[in-house]
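Reading a protein record of the kind used here takes only a little practice. The record below shows the convention in full.

——
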Amino acid sequence: MRLRMPGRSGASSADPSGDAPPVTGRTPSFAAMPSAAVTSSPAPGAERGPRLQKGVRALAIASAQLLLIAAALVVVGWVLGRLWPILLPVILGLLFATVLWPPTRVLRKLHFPPALAALVVLLAFLALIAGLFSWIVPQVADQAGELADAATAGLQDVQQWVTGPPLNLGEDQIGQAVDQVIDTIQNNAQNIAGYALTGATAVGGILLNLVLALVLAFFFIKDGPRWLPWLAAQTGPKVAPHVAALSYKTWTTLSEFIRQQALVGFIDAFFIGLGLWILGVPLVLPLAVLTFFGAFIPIIGAFVAGAFAVLVALVSNGWQTALIVLVIVLVVQQLEGNVLQPILQGRGLNLHAAVVILAVTAGGSLYGILGTFLGVPVAALIAVIYRYVRDELDGRTPEVADDGTRVQVTGDDAGATVVRERVRTPASGPVPEDAPDADDDTPARPPA
């Protein structure tokens, strides 16, 4: 009987043929290895690959769609940029029309002919602007000399302060600094002249655009009620209600923007002007008018108008009065921004303050001063279109007005008109057969 060696039992059981390599510290056998640890990650399922391919395909399609949309936006922006000299007076004319339409509508209800009503309102508007400037310009001319003398005295005070403690700068150093500034101006005289010529050209272009915008505003308020029937007639019966609803909403938004900013500007101008008058600061009326018009450029306009008021107070009345004016401006603007603007924006534009800041910044960087003025109404119109499309996708029937009616186009070969018709909505239930129509205005035929 042969005895088995203890050291050979594992090898013989693991490899009966006896051909396995010898077990050493560097080459352990598989049987000597410990069992693998169990991980907490689930094992890959059979659907992981197909689902990954499906997700990648959906991501690729979405990326291609986004690229096409971005390319389309770039093309649209380029086209609008090329057409900007034409679009600018049209947009300004529409804004003027929102101001001039209410009195024009009153005159038309008094049986004034459309052309006469538009002409009377436009001439009254121009007379008001001319009278305002004829009132302001003499005051500016009379008090400009006093402000210049006060500014000179202020510069002398600054010079005395700089030459005294704690700076103790000598007059020679100040003279050298002044000479350097003069030399810089003389060396760049040609560039400065070019900038002045460019600025004069820009001012001339703005005046030309304003004149053209007023002419277009005249035709807008004269033939405005005929625009909607003509536009609706170019579409089909299914699209006409949406075209009419969007037209009403955009017009209401523009009108609300003008009324809102006019109210905000009047309140700012009244209280800041009252404070300047009490403190005896000169140029009260021009500064109040500047504050009023500055309100039409949200945030930035109020800051610039307030800075001018503080600067005039500093030059004319000293730093104590300037500090009081700064406090008045800050208090009025805080009341406007935290109390008045949220109420008006919630009722009208419904835009967040961050959106307003971004709109003003983007408009200013793209189109300068006019861009800062037009940035907010353009953003409000984009928001109106977005909300309309969103409500339409959700099945909320945004083309239906609050009174349960919607606009529909009717007519024949002689012309088209729009009428309001009652619609049945889930909230209102069935419409009675004898329900009256809700026509607000007399339908008008489209222009030839």
